[in-house]
Specification:
Rossmann fold, seven-stranded mixed β-sheet, four-stranded parallel β-sheet, binds 6-O-phosphono-beta-D-fructofuranose
């Protein structure tokens, strides 16, 4: 019986379990045997697996996170790990692999397809929604709804205390969570990595708003937003195995600058991993399920080296190499819509 493996890599996000469930259910219907690879590429380096049958995926649809575990392991980073991946792929007896991940995990998948493991299909996930070649990644909608709810909550306390509150959201180098949560939550200023921060302009907008009688403001800032000189605020300079810095802290920096320049009492709220946890929205459950079923259809058709993707309302497939070629960032049209409501 042919065997399919599935792994989830990179930051977890709501919707991973619906994908795992869909892959298992569809693959069983098609007569495959399944195995779960634990903790992303690390599981293939270490031959760490778990059995996956219909009972293993029962009840996981509404659960956040991933029953397989995850890691940010890059097998191209450490000498010898690539060979271990290849050896273990054979040892585990895999005929195909479903790699569920973002830019990094799928980047490894794309390289492996050229480096001797062609039978891979990719499934795009990330709360950041920054993968090109798909209109949406699952996980984003849940993170967006969490962030929007947090902004609603921040509004009531900011208004009562006549304060400015800076809400820092995730998203790495793309401003999707910030811009959409900012629009949905009615933020008074939204700052995203795609548009350099003009702190004088931010303070001018807030002052003008207060002059028309408003005594509070909400500023949403993406963790990867940059100042005009190109600098960003990071938690540490150390890079992870994919060359990423740990972002975070820009909210505090901005809050201090805003308070100093405007004289208005300012607080900061960093939403952090709260955006990544918890139960997936119905949208993410449905998208994850559609992606999982399509991934198995690609395997059945022996259409490897592809990533499933959402285009409009259709699930399509695109070459993995295309999908990881460039980041999808917020375009100016979107930002201009948010701007209408600034101040
Ligand atoms: O890519 C998802 C993401 O949540 C980013 O938005 C964020 O910068 C990063 O992961 C945080 O990573 P970690 O969970 O390793 O702190």
């Amino acid at each position: 019986m042919a065997r399919i493996g599935i792994l989830t890599g990179g930051g977890d996000c709501p919707g991973l379990n619906p994908v795992i469930r869909a892959v298992v259910r569809k693959a069983l219907l098609e007569g495959y045997d399944l195995v779960g690879i634990k903790n992303g590429w690390k599981g293939l380096v270490e031959n760490d697996t778990m059995p996956l049958d219909i009972n293993a995926v029962s009840g996981i649809l509404p659960k956040g996170g991933t029953i397989l575990g995850t890691s940010r392991t890059n097998p191209y980073k450490k000498e010898g790990e690539l060979q271990k991946v290849k050896d273990n792929f054979k040892k585990i007896g895999l005929d195909a692999l479903v790699a569920v991940g973002g830019e990094d995990t799928l980047g490894v998948a794309s390289k492996l397809v050229k480096d001797g493991i062609p039978n891979i299909v990719g499934v795009p996930k990330t709360i950041d929604n920054d993968l090109s070649a798909t209109d949406y990644t699952f996980g984003f909608d849940t993170a967006l709804n969490v962030a929007t709810e947090c902004i609603d909550r921040l509004h009531t306390t900011a208004e009562s205390h006549h304060r400015i509150i800076v809400a820092e959201v995730m998203g790495r180098h793309a401003g999707w969570i910030a811009i959409e949560a900012g629009i949905a939550g009615g933020a008074d200023v939204v700052l995203i990595p795609e548009i350099p921060i003009d702190i004088e302009e931010v303070c001018r907008i807030i002052k003008k708003r207060h002059e028309r009688g408003k005594t509070f403001s909400i500023v949403v800032v993406a963790e990867g937003a940059q100042f005009k000189d190109g600098s960003m605020v990071t938690q540490e300079q150390k890079l992870d195995s994919f060359g990423h810095v740990r972002l975070g802290g820009i909210g505090e920096n901005l809050a201090q600058q805003i308070e100093k320049a405007t004289g208005y009492e300012t607080r900061v709220s960093v939403l952090g991993h709260i955006q990544r946890g918890g139960s997936p929205t119905a949208f993410d459950r449905v998208l994850g399920t559609r992606f999982g079923v399509k991934a198995v259809e690609l395997i059945v058709a022996k259409k490897f080296g592809q990533m499933v993707a959402l285009s409009g309302n259709k699930i399509i497939d695109v070459p993995l190499s295309e999908a990881v070629k460039e980041l999808k960032t917020v375009d100016k049209d979107f930002y201009d819509i948010a701007k209408v409501f600034f101040g």
